[in-house]
Amino acid sequence: MMNAPTQPRPIHNAGPPAGMSSPATVVRKRAIPEAAAINAMNPQVKKKRAIDRNIPEKLDTLVPESRLYTELQEFERKLDSTIVRKKLEITESLSKPMKVKRTLRVFISNTSCNQQPIQEAEGNEIDYGSNIPAWTLRIEGRLLDPINAKSTRPPTRKFSHFFKSIIVELDRDPEMYPEGNLIEWNKAPDSDDVDGFEIKRKGDANLKAKIFLNLDQQPPRYKLSPELESVLDIQEETKQGIIMALWQYIKHNNLQDNEDKRIINNDMRLYGIFNAPRIAFPQVPELISKHLAPVDPIVIEYTIRVDKEFHQSRYAYDIEVELDDPNKMRLAALASNSVNQKEIHNLDDKIVQCVQSINNSKTKRDFLLNFANSPIDFINKWIASQSRDLEVILGESKVNLEEQRKSEFYKQDWVNEAVFHYTNAQTQRRMQELLGASSMNRNDQRFLNK
């Protein structure tokens, strides 16, 4: 009967966001009720930053150089669009496994000790004394540098990182060696990685050993059943890759139902796998589970020799392993980079201030130019405008009914703005009424529950 497998000894190496009184009021001179309504509903709303960075229209006729600013704005929009698209691509790529293939070189060797017996002088008896013959099996490995590596760097991962279990099976008489012939190591969740393992046992004769290496692959890979392998022509793959390959087979053979695209009408080959004429594609991950098995371990045969103090296998074994792409960390840091955002916001604020200054200068110029062209008409219009504003402020606004009967009255610049703010105010008032009614209903419900 085989005894419980024992654990090998690890090897550690040092290293490395109010209604209006009259349609004739000049709304552009009043406080905007929409913002007040929003702030009343949510007192935590922050004041928005000024974002108007467009220079006044027809400014290029006065300052031809202003066209360069417009061209820069267009270039900035294209650049922002490209940056956003690239960030989305990086974010999408980060959600997928990014792996690079490297080579892990495995070395097998053994040492022996106390293999020379002491023969007594008077007879033929052989005595080992207090020194018991023993041997030590060493299983080690290291990650090779890439072929085009510019410099040699310490390995990022140690030997045990790449395996979930290692089993050593010894070919010897279990009656003579009751400690068992099976040595097994399984990776613990929080265990530290090591550079190799040592297995020490008693023995004074050469023996054969089989070493089973089970790779720790993330995401896990599976071996396909012969039936599924004949359909997909894949021997080993991740579950996601198998489902994707099966989907490509279904699309290529037009097996989707015409009415419900989620239903798959199996052909003869898929019928032999799923034993059903029709299946729902969301069931595929569960249905293919019985056709998947763990991948076979890597088997290395080695002869432990005790006739010499040190013996090493004539071969080194290269195993292709996968590592997380080091560029993934760089892409993640690039996608979340916010170091320059503060500087960009400061520059945007300066641009907004400059544009506001240009707008103010353009307004002053238009004011003075209109006054210079026709001083009397300009002053009359300006006095009328100021008088109306004063009436609005004092609440004594009076509208000439004769003016309201003419269509030109409703084509003035302030009408669209007044209608906009009036409708927004009505919308906010209605929202507050609905919120108040909802709050009362909740209070009534709590009272009834009590």
From TrEMBL:
<dbReference type="Pfam" id="PF02201">
    <property type="entry name" value="SWIB"/>
</dbReference>
<dbReference type="InterPro" id="IPR003121">
    <property type="entry name" value="SWIB_MDM2_domain"/>
</dbReference>
<dbReference type="InterPro" id="IPR019835">
    <property type="entry name" value="SWIB_domain"/>
</dbReference>
<feature type="domain" description="DM2">
    <location>
        <begin position="217"/>
        <end position="294"/>
    </location>
</feature>
<dbReference type="InterPro" id="IPR036885">
    <property type="entry name" value="SWIB_MDM2_dom_sf"/>
</dbReference>
<protein>
    <submittedName>
        <fullName>Putative brg-1 associated factor</fullName>
    </submittedName>
</protein>
<feature type="region of interest" description="Disordered">
    <location>
        <begin position="1"/>
        <end position="24"/>
    </location>
</feature>
